[in-house]
Design goal:
Elements (H helix, E strand, L loop, with lengths): L1 H9 L3 H18 L3 H18 L2 H12 L6 H9 L8 E4 L12 H4 L2 H16 L4 E5 L9 H11 L7 E4 L5 H12 L3 E7 L3 H10 L3 E7 L18 H22 L4
Parallel strand pairs: 1-2, 1-4, 2-3, 4-5
Helix pairs in contact: 2-3, 4-11, 9-10
Amino acid sequence: MFIFKKIISSFLMPVPLSLLISLIGLILLWFTKRQRTGKIFVSVGIFLMLLLSYNAASNQLLRTLENRYDPDNIQLENNISSEDMPPIKFIVVLGGGHTLDSKLPITSQLSEDSMARLIEGIRLYRKYSNVKLILSGGTGFDPIPNAHVMANLAKELGVNEDNIIMESKSKDTIDEANFIKPIVNNDQFILVTSASHMPRSIAMFKKLGMNPIPAPTGHKVKGKQTIISYPFFLSSIYLLKAEIAFHEYLGMLWAKLRGQI
């Protein structure tokens, strides 16, 4: 199911989807008499790629996800220190992937998402006493679990090995929630993941009766921008933002269909 989900979702990302629509149009133009339909398909495919290559469009898609939870650390700290709440025992950092390469430093082997999540988790870990850092992430397409790679870097950055708990069996977010639940039980905990990934993660964890406090990080949409501030040129960087948004919206749709959120 994991491999099947990855394959299907890859075809629904902005670039493959746009090219597929255009390709269907070209086939209709070259090999059938449905010229009008073919022109519509080609036009839609090209327009979709152009639209998602524009900063304003991709930012809007992603901002809706990233702004769901307030990243204000003061608010987070006030929640944690409130006398009405039990002390926080765990900080959970969700895995974001890595690629092993012995020729590269560990900071280059971790993906951008994993790095941002881990650094934020360590930052919060150092603010509060008597907490355990739960690092989550299984093997995926790599023989070494993502949790192990993050743990190695965390130890190099000064985190006490005794305060690290590794969850290294999960393949995806719902697996992470299921495997972390027996560790945290009903305790409230800080959940660290990418801002765009936070809405789906929170929904899945809460569906299992868990009590996460969101600590989003790795924001891709930064600063308050107006239409005047957007550069009027297209870029693959903006397509990447759109791809992140597509990935999350498809993930939420799949989770809803399977009753996971």
